[in-house]
Write a structure and sequence with these properties.
With 183 residues, the chain is an all-alpha fold. It has one domain. Helix content is 80%, strand content 0%. It is built from five helices and no strands. Helix 2 runs antiparallel to helix 3, helix 2 runs parallel beside helix 4 and helix 4 runs antiparallel to helix 5. The mean pLDDT is 86. This is Membrane protein.
Length: 183
């Protein structure tokens, strides 16, 4: 009968490094290829975010035409207006990269367009998060019957958004930097 022992973490890392395939050679991606790749990434990210905000915006627009909407109090109506304005603003910011590209196409400004589009995406995503928060507040205020319980739930959901959207990215970046320092 043979016994096996557990590898230490350092031994396990050594085994992984020895058995891992060799990293591909550094690409000779030129400036033009890099900006084209970055632009394609921005477009793909925009498609994903636009779909979500458009569905939410459509829902919000239809809400005003339901019979129960007339029963809402002034707080809920004001919150609805703020929510619709945030959704429209988010839609504008998330569609803006396409318009920016169309207006500046052919003027050899792609690097600047990609940078501006990235900033517009961040703005649109923040506005989208605020739209989701206000939509939840509007719905939960009616369902739970009060601003305080709705606010607590919305706060928890927004904390989850922050962890998913920003906390995960921060953690991945921190671990990568730590790995680089250990080399």
């Amino acid at each position: 009968m043979t016994t096996t022992r557990r590898l230490t973490e350092a031994e396990w890392r050594t085994v992984q490094e020895e058995t891992a395939p060799a990293p591909p050679p550094r690409s000779s991606e030129g400036a033009r290829e890099r900006v084209n790749r970055r632009w394609q990434e921005v477009l793909q990210e925009t498609r994903v975010a636009q779909t979500g905000v458009q569905i939410l915006f459509g829902f919000l627009l239809s809400l005003a035409f339901t019979p129960r909407f007339r029963e809402l109090g002034s707080f809920d109506r004001g919150l609805y207006v703020v929510t619709v304005v945030l959704a429209a603003s988010s839609t504008a910011a998330l569609i803006a990269p396409v318009t920016l590209h169309r207006c500046l196409s052919g003027q050899r400004l792609k690097d600047e367009v990609v940078t501006a589009a990235g900033r517009l995406m961040v703005c649109g995503i923040v506005l989208l998060a605020l739209t989701v928060a206000c939509t939840l507040m509007l719905i939960l205020n009616v369902v739970l019957g009060g601003v305080l319980p709705a606010g607590i739930v919305v706060g928890g959901v927004m904390l989850w958004f922050a962890l998913c959207w920003y906390g995960a990215a921060y953690r991945v970046r921190r671990r990568a930097q730590q790995r680089i320092r250990e080399r």
